[in-house]
Amino acid sequence: MKAERIFKGRAGVTRNLRKYHLYMLKPEDKDAVVFQGMRFVKFSGRKKEEKPSKARIILEFLEKNKDKAFFSKEIAEALRDKGIKPPDVMSNVRRFEKRDWFMFVAIGQAMEKLLLKKVI
Question: pTM (2 decimals)?
Fold first, then answer.
């Protein structure tokens, strides 16, 4: 970590600790090296688990239930265990509508009903 002082004009000076990473080429025969008092270790190139995006989860749910109409709150409640919230539903449904994948019908000001039919 590196101590950093930043002049902010009339606000004065702020002090921050900045993290930084150092890299070096790995010798063929070693997995760890001490260089100038710092220990460098081999990078573990493990892959992250691929989990589906929120948009993909919502789209798959709507395709499975294409013969029904939903309130956005109903979709969010059905997918709550997968981390989907009402704002996620509305933002994705509006994007789907722009791409002409689904139709969105608003009923009244306070009540929104999603009539989601795959556009063929």
Answer: 0.51
